[in-house]
């Protein structure tokens, strides 16, 4: 039903117990979990995920960062990151033993930026749940959020001052206009260290403090495009997908992806049959692919 990344055989982690093919490791208490929502969510959108974590791991402190719901989720990503950070820092400080973070959809990009821009972060595991980690480029998505736009020409708006005032513009990655993407997009090229900024060194250093990065996505998502962006894949100019390991950001190790991968700290999970709006609600996704990484 699902597959791990090709390197997973090389990355065998010692198991305390094997149940079927699942590696179970025991822990005395669970790290607190912080959830970051996606675009156009409601304040209660992640409640089912929160409740399920509480059922399977009783006693876990789960916090949903309660900001930027509905239309407000279209605010520029850096603006959101700055504001979310004020909620996240106290949680980190109250839990010196570390926390785990789950970001859903756009929330996974917000989460990555929070991690990379916070020097003293103590995020142990970051679970990116169907997030466009290497950008978004597709008509299905536009039809929902920007009716009237088509992917071929949307860059004219997104790579403008007005377009950059929207979160989507910040991670729209048009594979035929990468020059403009690099020049005008004020978010994704920066966290990817594809452009050099005063934060380049810090972004990589902080990313490398992660103990585990879990990338979850699947071919039936229907919104994230290409769906492999959830695994740091991206379109080339012919809209063929370049897998993470062949991408420039990986080969250059621009913000630490290759290093983290070589250290066996990246888990890539592909699950078919899940639509974008079901990732955080489907109980088997939560039980089989999220809970095992929350220890
Ligand atoms: C991007 O910026 C570079 C350097 O300033 C410039 O030479 C190039 O023409 C720009 N490209 C686009 C598409 O704006
Ligand atoms: C990767 O490194 C090469 C060679 O140093 C450079 O030309 C290219 O711009 C870099 N790419 C990224 C995405 O940083
Ligand atoms: C959850 O996803 C699986 C596919 O992995 C599917 O078979 C199952 O019906 C889904 N469950 C619900 C409640 O939608």
UniProtKB/TrEMBL annotation:
Class of the enzyme per the UniProt entry, highest EC level: hydrolase
InterPro entries: AB_hydrolase_fold
Pfam families in the cross-refs: Palm_thioest
Top-rank taxon: Eukaryota
Catalysed reaction, written as an equation: S-hexadecanoyl-N-acetylcysteamine + H2O = N-acetylcysteamine + hexadecanoate + H(+)
A Gene Ontology term for the protein's cellular component: lysosome
Function: Catalyzes the cleavage of thioester bonds from S-palmitoyl-CoA or S-palmitoyl-N-acetylcysteamine (unbranched structures) but does not have activity against palmitoylcysteine or palmitoylated proteins, branched structures or bulky head groups. Conversely, hydrolyzes both long and short chain fatty acyl-CoA substrate.
Protein name in UniProt: palmitoyl-CoA hydrolase
